[in-house]
Here is the input.
Amino acid sequence: MDQPIRLKNNGQISIVLNSQKRKTYTKELPESQAPPKAIPAEHTALKEIEEELGALVGMEEMKKMIKEIYAWIYVNKKREEAGLKAGKQALHMMFKGNPGTGKTTVARLIGKLFQKMNVLSKGHLIEAERADLVGEYIGHTAQKTRDLVKKAIGGILFIDEAYSLGRGGEKDFGKEAIDTLVKHMEDRQHEFILILAGYSREMNHFLTLNPGLHSRFPLVIDFPDYSIEQLMEIGQRMLKEREYTLSHESEKKLREHLHFVKTNLSPNSFSNGRYIRNILEKSIRAQAMRLLMQNSYDKHDLMTLRSNDLVFEEAD
Ligand SMILES: Nc1ncnc2c1ncn2[C@@H]1O[C@H](COP(=O)(O)OP(=O)(O)OP(=O)(O)O)[C@@H](O)[C@H]1O
Ligand SMILES: [Mg+2]
Here is the structure.
């Protein structure tokens, strides 16, 4: 497959992030027709978007998808100017992946980027979960869900662990929330973007609960677990931003530890990027205590996390 966005038989688009596969084009375009590599100067928004996306490790397919959406919107404008039909497409999405694989981070970024691209008027993110949608009596749920959609107009409504809405069966108000959402995502499909997120297995099951649900999410994005090298890179970027570095020894220790947890923990209890962030934040506190006790504050010491500062506990 050489397309990041793949149309399945049912018209749904599926995107796999972090794909290790290299792109190979089956048919090479002749030199004269190959698109230029550099983005034309007038697309400053696209350049800014590239920069923001560049801060994220991996996720190549999803970066490509966002740029393709930009191109699609731009070309649609040009088509309109040329008197051609301009396509309208709902951009509701489903994010599937284990904890800490970047779902919330990407949702927030998409809000910002789509605002730059004039897809969304505000670009804000409303994060919600089951309790924000489901009420306690008949009619309450529809009201709560409607209110939430109203707040999200112009931006993104991100519902984490969305599969929990399907819990509880027919009598549960979760079903009412789903029905209300489905209605709004049709009626106001160009006014807000709904992103449902959750673990892959649960989300696949969730989609079977309402036959209309599947086709209403044209963009399904998988967030795979990070490799050890990607986790190290995420860690390095977090540290760089905070103006810290790992000593040679501590880098080795962290890599070995990641190897250990990734081979011993079950994939859906390992929290990927969040795991790294927690370890590093804890180490920063341990380093502070060490420096305080040593009473030494030279610049190099202030910046360096030593291997003794890295403490791994069961709960990590
Ligand atoms: N590709 C990435 N590049 C840089 N940092 C990342 C990346 N993916 C995740 N992170 C970092 O990892 C942490 C967890 O990410 P995030 O909260 O987005 O995960 P999540 O998938 O929403 O998790 P959960 O399912 O548990 O809600 C954040 O601090 C985020 O900045
Ligand atoms: Mg999250």
Summary: DSSP finds eleven helices and nine strands in the chain. The pocket of magnesium ion (ligand 2) is lined by residues 103-104, 160 (CB under 6 Å). The two ends are 37 Å apart (CA to CA). Confidence is low (pLDDT under 50) at residues 1-26.
